[in-house]
Amino acid sequence: MESTRAIFNHEYGPMADAACSFCIICSHRLMLRTGALVNGILLGGFYSLMGMGQNIIFGVMNIVNFCHGEMLMVGMYITYVLYTYFGVDPYVALPIVAVLMFGLGALIQSTLITPSLKTKSFTNLLFLTVGLGLLLTNGALLIFGSTYYKIITPYAQTYIPLGPVTIALPRLVSFLILIVVAIALFAFLKYSTTGKQIRAVSQNPIGAEVVGINVKKIYILTYGLGVALAGIAGSLLTQFYTIYPTAGASFGFRALIVVVVGGLGSIPGAFFAGIFLGLLEQMSALFISPSYSDMIVFVTFIIILVVRQVMILRRR
Questions:
Q1: From CA 201, how far away is CA 158, in angstroms rounded?
Q2: Residues of 243-261 as b/e, b for ≥16 C-beta within 10 angstroms?
Q3: What's the gap between Cα 179 and its chain centre?
């Protein structure tokens, strides 16, 4: 850089140093903005996956799963145990985590949520899922303590240059896996027989039962699938996110925002809403302040709710 400045000084005189400094500043700003853009997309991928899991549960059973973030935390701890005590790579552990989390979700649905659904009380389901979240959080605190854990793999410090920015290999691989999972979920719901049954139950559970669909079985499958998606997101997060008992709280709330912004029952909508949320968070942190990023996300969420309500009233 100094030799470049010397050449500019020799060729163009005293103004060269100022021009060169201006170019350096512009280049630095471009790198910061590009980095924030890339990080926003990568972070948004996790919000998308969490939102898709929440969207499936809410769309089929009309349940706001307030323990969805805690399911992500459980997936993180399962991955940590598999890697620390059994030497299973986090990416290799993904199918194991998905199966275990699906089983946990199916168990919770069949033993706790199904009896509560018969009461047709939103309050019962609300307190049930909130209580499950508290149970899982305090259970993790009891077993693992308040210590912050982190998984460091041999390739954790491997970086890949993409234009003006470099991306950590685990972040890039995790995002690609998220894309594959999202596409697979969309294809499963749209083209498979079970997926069509899930969509039928979400539209009209009574009509679906009349034509022979086992609604109770679909509910168990749906809740297990939503929990498995949260577990996959948690497993992928472990390589660049600290593991602790309340790690999933912020992700759980953002999953609700994704459902509202993306639209009920829309998997593509949830995906793009998650990306939008990640970009909004990163860009507000860059251009305003990191301490205000959460507030900006919540204010944007409220504005979207108000605008949608006004649009609904105008249509009436």
A1: 45
A2: bbbebbeebbbbbbbbbbb
A3: 12
- At 279-296, the pLDDT tens digits run 999 888 888 888 888 888
The string of pLDDT tens digits covering residues 204-243 is 888 999 898 999 999 999 999 999 999 999 999 998 889 9
Cα separation, 178 vs 52, whole angstroms: 11
Tell me whether residue 163 is exposed, middle or buried, using C-beta atoms within 10 angstroms of its C-beta: 0 to 12, 13 to 18, 19 or more: exposed
Q: Which residue has the higher pLDDT, 30 or 268?
A: 268
Non-local CB neighbours of 56 within 8 Å, separated by 6+ positions: 189, 198, 222, 225, 226, 229
- Cα 133 to Cα 23, 45, 123, 202, 237: the distances in Å are 51, 23, 15, 25, 19
Q: Residues 227, 101: contact at Cβ < 8 Å?
A: yes
| 219 in Cβ contact with 225 (< 8 Å) | no
Q: Look up tokens 């609300």; give the residue.
A: 126
The closest alpha carbon to 64, from 130, 143, 114, 2, belongs to: 130
